[in-house]
Write a structure and sequence with these properties.
324 residues, 0% strand
């Protein structure tokens, strides 16, 4: 089961990057895809959340842990809102918007690749974590790799290119997921309950705002013109696959292999995603992308060769689920 969970996690994280870039070249807008991701995940997680809360109330009565959002989030409102903002809303909006400007090869390096960097920095600020010399070396390699990939796009921006916008959005998406991970560790929340909570929050906040903006003509939606096959696919893959199945598989992998070995397994994602983009999307692999990919992957592996100090080892998700 541990091996199966690892295979499912790596496959879904890799597929997320390739499919999200391919989706950007079809009918839907990034805000449309974000809505379908949230709705697709909610079809499974909102009933699950209601069942968890209802069962706790029946079994524990008045002593049941606090819930929120009319009983569909198993976490208190303040926790649900904080985690939902970073893990449910900002990550999805920023990531999908990035794919409309930059290729998947860039996302492969800048999203899963920069996640350990942002997580380590935020853990120092929020949790007073300590960065070991070996991890510092790994983070330095990650920064060098990100600069090799994004630096060329930033320079091209002066000539009118807009790939740099996607690179910046990918980095911000990784930072958003890192903020979610660090706060989840600080609050010591269960991974499944956190996934349910951020999905419930995103549904109740994003869907009404999106609908109102579309009705007012402030946001363009292509849902009315897109093929039903495309809409259904996004509901199933982005919601059911990238959120629900990926979340459960990642949690199971952590339980079997532990956070350190799991992070080493997920270090495969940047390389596999880049290869998938080259083979399936016909994206070019320039020398700077290959070099940046090698540096980032090496940096991730160096960062997990030794176990972190005690505070850092308590959150499996700190290194993980960003790619999807």
């Amino acid at each position: 089961m541990g091996l199966l969970a690892a295979l499912v996690t790596v496959t879904l994280w890799t597929s997320f990057i390739v499919i999200a870039r391919a989706s950007a070249q079809r009918s839907l807008t990034p805000l449309d895809i974000t809505l379908l991701r949230i709705v697709g995940a909610s079809l499974v997680l909102v009933p699950w959340g209601w069942w968890l809360v209802h069962r706790r109330r029946v079994q524990m009565g008045a002593s049941a842990p606090a819930s929120s959002l009319a009983g569909i989030s198993p976490l208190p409102l303040s926790t649900t809102a904080l985690l939902g903002l970073f893990g449910g809303l900002l990550y999805a909006v920023l990531a999908y918007a990035g794919f409309f400007h930059a290729p998947a090869t860039h996302a492969a390096v800048l999203m899963p690749g920069s996640l350990p960097l942002w997580t380590a920095l935020l853990a120092v600020l929020v949790l007073h974590d300590r960065i070991t010399p070996l991890r510092a070396l790994g983070l330095a390699l990650i920064v060098a790799g990100d600069l090799l990939v994004g630096g060329r796009s930033l320079l091209a921006g002066f000539a009118g290119g807009d790939v740099w916008k996607g690179d910046v959005l990918f980095m911000l998406a990784a930072a958003s997921w890192a903020a979610y991970s660090v706060q989840a560790r600080r609050l010591a929340v269960d991974a499944v309950q956190a996934t349910i909570a951020i999905t419930a929050f995103a549904l109740l906040v994003y869907a009404p705002v999106y609908g109102a903006l579309v009705a007012l003509g402030m946001v363009t939606s292509h849902l009315g013109h897109a093929p039903w096959s495309e809409i259904l696919f996004q509901l199933v893959f982005q919601g059911g696959g990238s959120v629900v199945i990926s979340g459960i598989a990642f949690t199971r992998m952590i339980q079997h292999y532990g956070p350190v070995r799991s992070t080493m397994i997920t270090a495969l994602v940047p390389g596999l995603s880049a290869i998938g983009a080259v083979l399936l999307l016909d994206e070019p692999m320039h020398w700077n992308l290959g070099a940046g990919l090698a540096l980032v992957t090496t940096g991730i592996l160096l960062g997990v060769l030794r176990k972190s100090p005690a505070p850092a080892s308590s959150l499996p998700t700190a290194s993980g689920k960003s790619a999807a």
